[in-house]
Amino acid sequence: MWSAELNQFLELASKYYGTDWAAMCFTFIQLYLLGNGKRIGFVFGIFATLSWTAFGIMAGSIANPIANSIFLVMNIRGLLKWTEMEAETE
Length: 90
Known about the structure:
Helices cover 83% and strands 0% of the residues. It has 90 residues and is mainly alpha-helical. It has one domain (17-89). The chain is elongated and about 65 Å long. The relative contact order is 0.12.
């Protein structure tokens, strides 16, 4: 009984090769770090958007990769702006 349910769970959990799980974890880490004022949060945001994009492509979504391409640019911009602001204050 448990074996069939466990197999079904594992099949569903690995359907997208873990890209959805990685994206979720990267997103949570990004939000936590940015909420604590840590610039590295943008790096995790970049990993999150790449993971979400891969997931969206595998899931057959059109909107997901488009939105995450924009989020990717915004994360890169945030990282660069933060670096500029730190350089100006030194």
